[in-house]
Amino acid sequence: MPGLTLGDTVPNLELQTTQGKKKLHDYIDDSFTIIFSHPGDFTPVCTTELGAMAAYADEFAKRGVKLLGLSCDDITSHAEWIKDIEAYNNGHKVTYPIATDPAREIIKQLNMVEPDEKDPSGNQVPSRALHIVGPDKKVLIKLSFLYPAGTGRNMDEVVRVLDSLQKTSKHKVATPANWKPGDPVVISPSVSNEEAKKLFPQGYKTADLPSKKDYLRFTNV
């Protein structure tokens, strides 16, 4: 789908939210921020998802991560729907703002438009998209998920990739397949062995591969 993608700068949109007007760049400030869209208020999968976001709010806060929801429904609808979300999800409070987009312009600018689905009036609807935006003042998209309408997000995976993004932003490393916090990471190929000894005084292990190339180097940070 064309439009905003990884590495692009998020536009500095002015949003109407359940917590008042917000300029997007001011809201992001110097934090990692998760911007997530949902196809519609008072729908089953979205209710479970926004409730899961509320339930994981403390995990996100521990990582200094902000949350911002988005759909095309109006603020009154959002406010009423939040009551259902909190009631279904054991009272976890929706502490993050949910933006509205009745003109369906914001979802286009954020590349959160469902390519095939339309509402009963024939209007475009938001996709089940999620962008993680970095805190580097460039407000770049660091990661993006797009799920079909019938599949809810996995919040454990959202937290896992956040941990990966935050670790790889601090060190010259990458996280291998199925990585989770506490597991070894791999040293970036751009780092020479000599540099690796300085950057990772705790040491590293090189995988013994048939090629005898030393590109797969594991360490703990």
UniProtKB/TrEMBL annotation:
The active site is at C46 (cysteine sulfenic acid (-soh) intermediate). One of its GO terms (cellular component) is cytosol. It catalyses: a hydroperoxide + [thioredoxin]-dithiol = an alcohol + [thioredoxin]-disulfide + H2O. The keyword DNA-binding does not apply. GO terms for biological process: cell redox homeostasis. InterPro entries: AhpC/TSA, Peroxiredoxin_AhpC-typ, Peroxiredoxin_C, PRX_1cys, Thioredoxin-like_sf, Thioredoxin_domain. Its EC number is 1.11.1.24. Residues 4-167 form the Thioredoxin domain. One of its GO terms (molecular function) is thioredoxin-dependent peroxiredoxin activity. Keywords: Antioxidant, Oxidoreductase, Peroxidase, Redox-active center. SUPFAM superfamilies: Thioredoxin-like. Pfam families: 1-cysPrx_C, AhpC-TSA. It is an enzyme of class 1 (oxidoreductase). Signal peptide: none annotated. Thiol-specific peroxidase that catalyzes the reduction of hydrogen peroxide and organic hydroperoxides to water and alcohols, respectively. Seems to contribute to the inhibition of germination during stress. Belongs to the peroxiredoxin family. Prx6 subfamily. This is Peroxiredoxin.
